[in-house]
Amino acid sequence: MTAAPLSIWVVSDGRTGIENQALGLAEAVQRLTPAEITTKHIRWRAPFDRLPSALKTRAMLDPSSDALAAPWPDLWIATGRATLPLSTRVRAWSGGKTFVVQTQDPRWANARYDMIVAPAHDGLAGDNVFEITGSPHRITPRRIAAAAPAFADRIAPLPHPRIAVLIGGRSKAFDLPAAHAAALADRIAEAVRTAGGSLMLTFSRRTPELAKAAMTARLSALPGWIWDGTGDNPLFGFLHYADHVLVTEDSANMAAEAASTGKPVHILPMVPLKSAGKFARLHADLRSRGAARPFDGALIPWTYEPPAETDRAARAVLEAMRTR
Fold it and tell me: How far apart are CA 188 and CA 38, in angstroms?
């Protein structure tokens, strides 16, 4: 008799950036064993959202939340602060059936999850902690190759080297004022022109409008594509067709995702607002793997073995489920 597929719930508040961490890990598990993935989006009703996690109950969830009830999954993979009151209780609700994985550092009740898949640069320790370089993500060579044909008409004619540029924005640790963005754009433009290549640029939701305008004005004359946010997101196409990837230093996720492609990753400097801390540790990790270097204006290719950290975490999850 064939065993039933593993039942996996991916639980988050629905924000794409954090959901993709849990979903990427779930998909990596699914690549290793038959599994059915269900996404669950939850929200807390406004009066209760700011309560400490210990005081929240399922009755406080917003009616728009997806149902959380039996039959419970074999594997619960959750991410984000909103999920913590649920992740710490689902094992009991399921009578011990459900194996609970939390991504990132929960910073609350860390001993109450079966496994925490945490970025090594966070420095989290514990018997149930599994450290990886960066965070789990959905980028795989097969996935970006499958997405690429939709953008081939626009990208394939572009001259090599094709330079993908991923721009972040203001955060607690970094800023991207217009003057810095303009100077950065001038450096990028000079590198692309010197190499005789082309540009594929995308901004994030955090990129300040003045920074967008400054960079667009200085880079729009180059052959290539500056995505304006309309139509399908070409990120996977950019990563597939790129010969080099330039990433601002404010996003650990973007750097780790870019490194998973095996393309040379160049780290673009921003204006620091405080110590780079965990970002510096991640970049040092990627440099030690040969994946990333500070952007120095030279677009010289190099090769390395791309990290497959999400797959490594998925193998650890399945092994922990077997031995629990």
Answer: 41
* Predicted pLDDT at 277: 84
β-pairing, 265-268 vs 244-248, is parallel
Amino acid at site 231:
G
SS (H, E, C) 131-168: EECCCCCCCCHHHHHHHHHHHHHHHCCCCCCEEEEEEC
Give the pairing of strands 265-268 and 292-294. parallel
**How far, in Å, CA of 202 to CA of 216, rounded?**
10
Yes or no: say if 307 and 285 are a contact pair by the CB < 8 Å rule.
no
Contact by Cβ (8 Å): 270, 174: yes
Q: Give the DSSP H/E element, type plus range, for residue 174.
A: strand 174-175
Rounded Cα distance between 64 and 42, Å, is: 8
The alpha carbon dihedral of 312, 252, 105, 17 has a sign of negative
Amino acid at 141: P
Q: Are 99 and 8 in contact (CB under 8 A)?
A: no
- The H or E element that residue 205 is part of is none
| pTM of the predicted structure, to 2 decimals | 0.91
Burial 96-111 (b: 16+ CB within 10 A, else e): eebbbbbbbebeeebe
Residue in 85, 35, 51 with CA at minimum distance from that of residue 65:
85
Give the distance from CA 80 to its chain's centroid. Answer: 13
Q: What pairing do the DSSP bridges indicate for beta strands 271-272 and 174-175?
A: antiparallel
Distance CA 221, CA 190 (A): 12
Instruction: Locate all alpha helices (DSSP H) within the chain, ordered by sequence.
Output: 16-32, 84-87, 90-93, 141-147, 152-155, 178-195, 209-219, 235-241, 252-259, 278-288, 309-323
Tens-place pLDDT, residues 197-215: 999 999 998 999 999 999 9
pLDDT recorded at residue 2: 58
